[in-house]
Write a structure and sequence with these properties.
heterodimer, A: 290 residues, alpha+beta, Nuclear Transport Factor 2, Chain: A, 6-stranded mixed sheet, 5-stranded mixed sheet, 11 strands, B: 365 residues, 12 strands, globular
Chain lengths: 290, 365
């Protein structure tokens, strides 16, 4: 799958891409689900139109069962910036049944020197989404998903993953320094450089400051050796309206600490779906949560 | 639940499904010999009629008298099936049907097979449709078609389509689409069926379409418990016993939820518009899922008193609200990991509007 994705999304090998798809394949990206050959082909074509040819700076593959999570750090030709593109695939090694992919579109806008408003216009129309209001409190029922009750099979660091989850879900900011190694490499959206735990602290704090009734929902976890991939989303209220931000986080664990994290979310697709939102304050200039 | 050799569609590509190489795995009494099982039959006839546009094949694969129930209308002759198919293709010329799953039940040689076919359709609205003028936009819709298949023909069908999700993608307001549909003429047979169904569900009676064919008992009990817990008892605290903590749910109109809290919210919000809702479980099918677990298909009906607080809908409060719905559940390790529920929200609201208008003239349900 790694080879297919690299050939498709860096060189435009649509033949190898097509041969990896079923007629029932669903590809979800930019808050839109793509079904059917024409729509599926538009995924790499739209990417290549925005990013052009590029090469892989770094890749990570995490597999468990029929799930493959592949992260590509891509660098378009003729520009300095890099772009995080993470794929969450349900596949059998030959064909993809479903793909959920997140592109850091803010990085893409910067790397391709495109105004964010133009980039938002270039993104596909998001699918209609109705997030029904619900009680986001646990009310002592212990029914929220956390890593230890979603992990398939044995895992020696489930306690560490639960602690990491609590940074976002509680939010238990004070344990950041316990969970991460001192020199942890943390990559958050719109970052071109290594970041540290301070930026993570600020990001979590900012989301909880700007939104109300924040709720983190874990969707799936894949563990392969010391690498972990987590699919999750944040639901919250903003100006009385519900918003949803899907994320994929990739963690590398060494002993009892996280040494590396790559969290990806699609800022501009979020802006397109929730046009009233001021969460990321994206106008024509590039600013992420501050 | 025992596995069998009947076709599973999950990992198969279309060419493989259209040229099955396996041996015949079901008796298929008086079906064409080319079909190896009921899933093969459903997948291939759907492809031939819809994607190869051989609409006349409806006369081959539908009985001359074939009742088709939707929440928006009724027909019982194959010529109407052909007419409706043709009109839909004219409105959406590139409509493609992607068969996601077929959950079936062997009803015995004297009754045939029951199939519940979940389909994702992609289609571009190039000409006027039942929802109004052409929009030129491409949309996606989930349909569940429940069919009784007997001796190579579909002899009874219940068709549920998530039209509210489709119209939202086409840029049409839900209530505008409902008003447009409400203005189209209804037919007497449909109104008689709807009235009878409402009376039946209110009385808590089973549908007359019951078969004594065997079904996996655990699956049947689970499906009945699911329906009763949520729609009848409304004991939403018990949802955590039915769903995994990261279960996914898709409901009409773009409603999506993951996890116990979100799923509970979907049911509370939906049932709040019909607080005295009563539901009947009209049919259950269950098959083993090839990647482990069980797929259950439930067709159900809900009736209650419409009680909306939305400004655009309050005038219909107090009227009877009726929904014909279908749900596919994927059960992994005894709990739901994924749910797809389909019904036609537009038709449900259009029926309220029709009844409201009829009340003014002394009629209406």
């Amino acid at each position: 799958m790694l080879d297919m994705l690299i050939k498709t999304f860096t060189k435009g090998d649509l033949g190898v891409y097509k041969s990896s798809l079923l007629h029932t394949t669903c590809w979800s990206q930019h808050n839109t689900k793509f079904f059917g050959q024409e729509k599926l082909m538009s995924v790499p074509l739209t990417w290549l139109r925005c990013a052009g040819r590029c090469h892989v700076v770094k890749s990570i593959t995490i597999c468990q069962g029929n799930t493959s999570v592949i992260h590509l750090l891509l660098k378009p030709q003729n520009c300095e910036g890099t772009i995080n593109y993470t794929f969450w695939l349900h596949d059998n090694g030959e064909v993809i049944k479903s793909a959920f992919a997140i592109v850091d579109t803010l990085q893409l806008a910067i790397a391709s020197n495109t105004d964010v408003k133009k980039m938002i216009l270039a993104l596909p129309e998001p699918d209609p989404l109705v997030i029904q209001d619900y009680d986001q409190q646990d009310n002592l029922q212990g029914e929220f998903a956390k890593p230890s009750n979603v992990i398939r099979g044995n895992c020696s660091f489930s306690t560490l993953l639960d602690a990491w989850w609590s940074i976002w879900s509680d939010p238990q900011l004070s344990i950041i320094d316990e969970v991460y190694a001192d020199a942890a490499d943390i990559s958050l959206p719109v970052s071109f450089q290594q970041q540290g735990s301070h930026e993570l602290f600020e990001l979590v704090l900012s989301i909880y400051s700007k939104l109300t009734r924040v709720f983190c929902q874990l969707e799936d976890i894949v563990i392969d050796g010391n690498n972990v991939a987590i699919k999750w989303f944040i639901d919250a209220d903003e100006q009385g309206k519900k918003v949803r931000l899907p994320l994929i986080t990739i963690l590398k664990i060494d002993g009892h600490h996280i040494t590396c994290e790559i969290t990806t979310f699609d800022v501009l697709a979020f802006e397109k779906r929730h046009s009233h939102s001021a969460l990321f304050e994206v106008k024509s200039t590039v600013r992420v949560v501050d | 639940m025992q596995k069998n050799n009947v076709t599973q569609v999950y990992w198969k590509n279309l060419p493989e499904l259209l040229s099955p190489q396996g041996k015949k795995s079901q008796s298929l009494k008086n079906f064409d010999s080319e079909f190896i099982d009921i899933v093969d039959y459903i997948i291939r006839i759907t492809h031939r009629i819809w994607e190869q546009k051989n609409i006349a094949l409806c006369t081959k694969y539908y009985a001359e008298y074939c009742p088709v129930h939707t929440l928006g209308g009724y027909s019982d002759d194959v010529q109407t099936v052909i007419k409706n198919t043709l009109q839909t293709l004219a409105s959406f010329p590139d409509r493609s049907l992607i068969g996601e799953n077929v959950v079936w039940r062997d009803l015995g040689d004297d009754s045939g097979y029951y199939s519940s076919h979940r389909i994702t359709s992609i289609m571009t609205n190039k000409n006027a449709s039942e929802f109004g003028a052409a929009t030129g936009k491409t949309g996606r819709v989930t349909t569940i078609a429940d069919c009784v298949c007997y001796e190579n023909k579909i002899v009874y069908e219940w068709l549920m389509r998530d039209n509210s999700f489709l119209v939202k993608q086409l840029g049409i307001e839900l209530m505008d689409a409902a008003e447009h549909l409400a203005e189209l003429p209804s037919n007497d047979k449909f109104e008689i069926w709807r009235e009878k169904e409402i009376a039946r569900v209110k009385a808590g009676k089973s549908s007359s379409h019951q078969w004594h064919a065997p079904i996996d008992e655990d699956s049947e009990n689970f499906a009945r418990s699911w329906l009763d817990t949520i729609f009848n008892k409304k004991t939403f605290g018990e949802i955590k016993g039915l769903y995994h903590v990261n279960a996914k749910l898709q409901w009409p109109g773009g409603v999506e939820a993951v996890g116990i809290s979100g799923i509970r919210g979907v049911f509370i919000q939906w049932l709040a518009q019909c607080p005295d809702a009563a539901a009947t479980c009209d049919h259950i099918s269950a098959v083993a899922f090839e990647d482990g677990g069980i797929d259950i298909a439930v067709r159900w009906s809900v009736v209650g008193t419409f009680t909306s607080k939305k400004e655009s809908l309050t005038k219909y409060s107090g009227q009877c609200f009726f929904v014909l719905g279908a749900t596919h559940l994927r059960i992994i390790n005894g709990k739901i990991s994924e749910e797809w529920t389909v019904f036609d929200e537009i038709a449900a609201y259009a029926n309220l509007m029709r009844d409201f208008n009829s009340h003014d003239t002394g009629k209406g349900v």
